[in-house]
Write a structure and sequence with these properties.
heterotrimer, A alpha/beta (328), B mainly alpha (303), C mainly alpha (335), A: 328 residues, alpha/beta, 8-stranded mixed beta sheet, 4-stranded antiparallel beta sheet, 9 helices, 12 strands, 27% helix, globular, C: 335 residues, mainly alpha, MetI-like fold, 12 helices, binds adenosine-5'-diphosphate, binds iron/sulfur cluster, binds magnesium ion
């Protein structure tokens, strides 16, 4: 049974490269984090910074030319990267489920929704008969506020929001301990975004599972999260509780991200962050952020900063806070 | 878009340059084994035929010019057939006419197909419906069937006439291919861009869309050439078409009617069969390489 | 399946038949001289002694109705076609063309339907396996060999097969449909049937071996695309078994466009097998067509070509009508 004393997911020093002709693209480069039971954790960072790759590595779904170079992924006490094939297959979805980034294209276009959920339930041999599985699917659809008839429908007959809900229903089919939702609302319009997000949170609370929520900006998702991890150029640069990250961000990149949030009061767009994220084929030496950082020092160009706790429960990878370079 | 969502790895769609395309194609040609091998096979075959035919008396392709049914020897490198024709002479004088049928029909079919496909794909509406319906019908009716009926009324045709008759049915494939590509190119950003800069429809079709279709046009051309040769050999095996001038279909037909297979005269049916296989495989290699060029997702699979 | 789709498909079917029959009407009339004259001239040129020539001329004058205006001829022609009345054979007068066709249909239909379906199914699987990661190397090599055979025409492969298996090894017969002198027994004679199958093996193999590569090629391309789709990644994330992912998620999706391709290539298949029949003296329609050409039997030539077009169009209509059952997205906009 579930051992509540240990974290649901512990990732250590994860490294994933995509091998191009000109060398490795360092999509994820030494990322470590822990997801606690019941927690809602958000990953945030510009698109292309390695969020999806990190999550796919957790599921061990990296395909060539990508390769997991290093690291440990401890899911519910077991290392996913060391599992046998069959063990891995059975672990997927029963312990960890995914609401994928491209939910629009993640449903098999020629299978009815019910069949796509049913085969998932049946293949994991949870002792359910087909009838029980079908009944369960109807209650799942109900839980994500989809009418019963959706079960008999094909993906192309559903709107974007409905597809997304169907994906959420599918993710919860086996009551996993951890659900990863990769930009679950980014392709939807704003009104639908809010409703889908509420459904997702509601379902997660009902199951009592943990949730990793990925987003490319600080928008919508923030209010519902417990903790946030900020990624930049394949590295985790800051981790902390939501209020801390918002009110007192440590890392200059986080500060810039928050500064670039559109402010409702001033009714104008944030300025954005000057410059572009680095090309991950040969990232800058030292701190990857230094070419865009206002506070860059000599040490930043030479030494890679380490993710360390600089305030209670708030970690950052930045030389500014090492040896009290700057008062906090 | 705010800088926060831009990625350094996103490719920005640039207006493709025709010149860049052509030199790109040439570079690709030399570096791709399928293209080099395919072209090489065709060139060797054609070279064998052209050089050989310059040195070999055409009279040796006539009935009774040599002893009957002798196996290959120093004097008759590929032997002779059952009516005393020198097989080597038949081959060297017969390969290039077969290619000629393919080239004439292929060029006609591709030109007509490209024009119709561009018009259909770019203008849409009723014009498109009429053209593509007609192309569909022509594709449904096997050209060999119509050719058989036509050729049975027009006995003893020439190489050129056969090629033209075949071309009547060779346009439908390229039309469909070019149409669907023109349709998708029309949606690409550089078309509205060109419109904004004041280019007319015709100019856009010629200057923007056509260069981008080049790989498809070439693939369609290669397909038509090989289809035309296939059709010509087919009607000749049925006893129709140009059976008087030497060409591969005619040699194969005489080997077949002369029961070369069962008389053990492998030198009779073997050479035209090998030449045709080299020809078809060569054209096939070129056409899949062109497909892969136009469609990069196919590259690097299953060597 | 919506009505518009249905109407479109049936419309295309009728249009195809109409175009083919109109071509059949026009070609004799566009050729130099009058059609009956051309036919009889050809007969004379052959030096054939024609026993009942007066009767034949009468029958053909009546059929072509040459004294009537062209449009009347045309309407009469279409009318008789609609009744599957294809006229008389010259070489075997007073046999009708329909008689000759109906005697050879079973062989052609049997050979073609079995080989086409087998080729399609094998090609689809082979093409999908070629791209699938878990396929053993040996299987991939074998499939690649078939891929290389894709451009080789059926008849050349038939020659090579006959050379090895019939002429050199003597394992298979090289022509005919039964052993010489063999007559069917009472009722269903299983040995007679097996003899037919035995004689059909080489022709069938020629069509199949040369045909599989084409499907492998098409399937390979589509499979590469499908394997990159998000729903395949999700299928793996769901912990489905490899086999199910391959069959239900990858193969099923990748094979859909191949059905449209099947409709398009049927003409090629039929043309190719016509010549294979002729090489093997296999008494189907291809062989009859060859005999008709050799004896200048124009009505039979036209009748057989028309009938083959009709069969192809019917098969395509069938495929088009089945397709929406396989692909739920179809309200049909052909690309
Ligand atoms: N299949 C791939 N081949 C090569 N590079 C890839 C591939 N997938 C992702 N990348 C690269 O890895 C980096 C991280 O991508 P991704 O994980 O998708 O980022 P995010 O989800 O944060 O937008 C990007 O720079 C991207 O270019
Ligand atoms: S380490 Fe240096 S360059 Fe990097 S964020 Fe901190 S201050 Fe800026
Ligand atoms: Mg992503």
């Amino acid at each position: 049974m579930i051992d509540k004393s240990q974290p649901v997911l512990k990732v250590e020093d994860l490294q994933v490269f995509y091998w191009s002709k000109r060398g490795p693209i360092r999509a994820v480069d030494g990322v470590s984090f822990t997801i606690k039971r019941n927690e809602r954790f958000g990953f945030i960072g510009e698109s292309g910074c390695g969020k999806t790759t990190t999550m796919m590595a957790v599921l061990r779904l990296i395909k060539p030319p990508g390769k997991i170079e290093n690291g440990r992924v401890i899911l519910d006490g077991q290392d996913v990267l060391k599992m046998e094939k069959e063990e891995l297959r059975l672990t997927r979805w029963s312990k960890i489920a995914l609401v994928p980034q491209g939910a629009m294209n993640s449903l098999n276009p020629i299978m009815r929704i019910t069949d796509q959920i049913e085969d998932t339930i049946m293949t994991h041999d949870v002792g359910a008969t087909r009838e029980q599985a079908r009944a369960r699917i109807l209650s799942l659809l109900d839980m994500v506020e989809l009418p019963e008839r959706v079960a008999r429908m094909y993906p192309h007959e559903l709107s974007g929001g409905m597809k997304q809900r169907a994906c959420i229903a599918m993710a919860t089919a086996l009551e996993p301990q951890l659900i990863i939702a990769d930009e679950p609302t980014s392709a939807l319009d704003v009104v639908v975004q809010k409703a889908v997000m509420q459904t997702l949170i509601g379902v997660q609370e009902r199951l009592g599972s943990s949730l990793i929520l990925i987003g490319h900006d600080m928008g919508l998702t923030a209010q519902v999260l417990d903790r946030i991890g900020v990624m930049y150029a394949g590295k985790l640069v800051e981790v902390g509780e939501v209020q801390d990250i918002y009110k007192r961000p440590l890392h200059p990149y986080t500060q810039a991200l928050i500064g670039s949030l559109p402010s409702l009061k001033e009714k104008k767009k944030g300025g954005g962050i000057p410059g572009l994220p680095p090309f991950l084929l040969n990232p800058p030496a030292g701190c990857v952020f230094h070419p865009r950082c206002q506070h860059a020092m000599d040490v930043c160009r030479q030494k890679v900063p380490v993710l360390r706790e600089h305030r209670p429960n708030q970690l950052a990878a930045c030389h500014l806070y090492e040896e009290s370079n700057v008062p906090i | 878009m705010a800088a926060t969502t831009a990625t350094s790895t996103e490719t920005v769609e640039v207006e493709p340059k025709p010149q860049g395309r052509i030199s790109g194609i040439i570079r690709y040609w030399l570096g791709n084994w399928k293209l080099s091998l395919g072209t090489g096979m065709i060139v060797v075959l054609l070279g064998f035929s052209v050089i050989g035919s310059l040195q070999t008396d055409f009279k040796k392709t006539r009935v009774g010019s040599s002893p009957f049914s002798v196996p290959p020897s120093a004097e008759y490198p590929l032997g002779t057939d059952n009516v005393g024709r020198d097989m080597y002479a038949l081959m060297v004088h017969g390969i290039h006419p077969s290619l000629k049928i393919g080239l004439i029909a292929g060029i006609l079919g591709t030109v007509i197909g490209t024009v119709l496909g561009l018009v259909a794909g770019y203008s849409g509406g009723l014009v498109d419906t009429v053209i593509s319906t007609f192309a569909d019908i022509v594709l449904t009716i096997p050209s060999l069937m119509i050719l058989v009926v036509l050729a049975s009324y027009l006995r003893s045709t020439t190489i050129e006439l056969t090629a033209i008759i075949i071309a009547v049915f060779a346009w439908a494939g390229p039309t469909r291919l070019i149409r669907s590509q023109a349709l998708s190119l029309r949606e690409r950003p550089f078309v509205p861009l060109a419109k904004l800069s004041g280019q007319g429809d015709f100019e856009i079709a010629i200057r923007q869309i056509l260069p981008n279709l080049l790989p498809y046009i070439m693939a369609g051309f290669v397909g038509s050439v090989s289809g035309a040769i296939l059709a010509s050999v087919g009607i000749q095996l049925l006893g129709l078409g140009p059976l008087l001038t030497p060409n591969l279909g005619m040699v194969l037909n005489s080997a077949f009617t002369g029961a070369a297979l069962f008389r053990g005269m492998w030198w009779w049916w073997g050479p035209p069969a090998v030449a045709l296989i080299v020809l078809f495989v060569g054209l096939f290699l070129i056409s899949i390489a062109l497909d892969e060029f136009a469609n990069p997702r196919l590259r690097g699979e299953a060597k | 399946m919506n009505l518009q789709y249905l109407l479109k498909r049936v419309g295309l079917f009728l249009l195809t038949i109409w175009v083919a029959s109109t071509l059949n009407f026009l070609i004799p009339r566009l050729s130099p001289g009058d059609p009956v004259g051309a036919i009889l001239g050809a007969m004379q040129a052959q030096g054939a002694t024609i026993a009942n020539s007066a009767e034949i001329i009468e029958a053909f004058r009546a059929r072509f109705g040459l004294d009537e205006p062209v449009y009347v001829q045309y309407v009469k022609y279409l009318w008789s076609l609609a009744h599957l009345d294809l006229g008389y054979s010259i070489a075997h007068f007073p046999s009708t063309v329909t008689d000759i066709i109906s005697n050879s249909i079973p062989y052609t239909l049997g050979l073609l339907s079995v080989t086409t379906v087998l080729t399609f199914v094998i090609g689809i699987f082979a093409g999908a396996l070629l791209v699938w990661q878990a396929t053993p190397r040996a299987a991939k090599t074998l499939i690649t060999i078939f891929l290389m055979l894709a451009p080789v025409p059926y008849y050349l492969l038939a020659m090579i097969l006959v050379f090895f298996f019939s002429f050199t090894l003597g394992i298979f017969p090289n022509s005919g449909i039964t052993s010489p002198g063999r007559i069917p027994g009472e009722g269903f004679d299983i040995n007679y049937f097996l003899d037919i199958v035995y004689h059909s093996i080489l022709p069938a193999l020629s069509i199949m071996i040369a045909g599989i590569g084409g499907w492998v090629l098409g399937m390979r391309g589509m499979m590469v695309t499908v394997l990159g789709e998000d729903y395949l990644t999700l299928a793996e994330a769901k912990g489905l078994k490899n086999r199910r992912i391959f069959l239900r998620y990858a193969l099923r999706n990748a094979m859909l466009p191949q059905f449209t391709a099947l409709a398009i290539t049927l003409g090629y298949v039929v043309s190719g097998s016509v010549i294979v029949e002729l090489l093997f003296s296999f008494p189907g329609m291809g062989y009859q067509l060859f005999r008709a050409i050799s004896s200048n039997d124009f009505p039979v030539i036209q009748g057989i070509t028309f009938f083959l077009v009709l069969s192809i169009a019917t098969a395509i209509l069938g495929i088009d009508l089945i397709y929406p059952l396989l692909d739920p997205r179809i309200t049909y906009n052909r690309k």
